Amino acid sequence: MANQDAAFGFRPARHLTGGQIRAEEANIANNYDTAIYTGQVVEAVTAGGVEAATVGDVQQAGVFGGVYYTDPTTSKPTWKAYYPASTAAADIENKNDMLNLWNKQVEWENRLDRVSPIGTVAHDSKPETNLFEIVLTATYQDVNSDDLTYSWEHLSSWDNADDRNSFDTPISFTPNNSSSKVECQVVAGIHEFQVTVTDTYGEGTTEVVTIVVGDEERENFIFKHKNLRSEDITKMLDNSYKSYYTNPSWILKYIYYKIKNTYENLHHGLFRFSR
Questions:
Q1: Would you give the distance in Å from CA 158 to the centre of its chain?
Q2: Cα–Cα distances in Å, from 252 out to 130, 247, 256?
Q3: How far is C-alpha 222 from the geometric centre of its chain's CA atoms?
């Protein structure tokens, strides 16, 4: 089977100076006559701004990630993932919003790849007791046997992998954030921590730890019946209990097993004593 031609252009791998990939903005000449698409290389021009790069250009400015301008027909602010050729708009800009969104998606997927499920908040019928205790351990050794110092930090928290809603939650480390092994309590969600390990010469490394804690496991039996009131349901429940536990068959079985268990316990006790 022949390879499928599904070109998508360039995708960012890293920033030249390291760290998070950072987007830039630049103008596109008004009424520029060449379309530019997401993932296409653009070059800096002498008059300022950017345009589509061509073979042999040496002034590449980066990769196109979308455009923002006031539409000349509707007079409305417009965002597009590509630049339509010959657009007459004085405020047209190469916006890297699409690039930013893509970077955030990659960052989130990388986070989910390293996430470690560690447990679920215990169900105790008390909504206010919603914490889960975790233990974080940094195991490092210095090749020169130098002493190491540790610094733990809580970076961010999110409600779940689908909604990605971040939230602030106070987290304190025990005994403190400078121990190799720390304990803390968190609510259900995805939590990201960072530990920085440094030797006596100030050289060190940083590691990010991402964990997920599940919410309380419980069934929701609360509902509104279209015909019965809550008093009616409570009464029916009481009657069902009475009907079951006052049934002669159940009472006889209960008495039988109580006598049997008492006899077996007494017999085993006498046997142990006789030995």
A1: 5
A2: 44, 9, 6
A3: 29
**What structural domains does the chain harbor?**
1-114 (no CATH), 115-214 (2.60.40.10), 230-274 (no CATH)
Residue 208 CA to residue 193 CA, distance in Å, equals 6
Tokens representing 58? Answer: 């040496």
Question: Order of strands across the sheet with 77-80?
Answer: 26-27, 93-94, 67-70, 77-80
The alpha carbon of 226 is separated from its chain's Cα centroid by a whole number of angstroms, namely 39
Sign of the CA dihedral running 253, 258, 261, 263: negative
Furthest C-alpha separation in the chain? 107
DSSP code of residue 159: S
Q: Convert the pLDDT of each residue in 99-129 to its tens digit.
A: 455 556 667 777 777 787 888 888 777 777 8
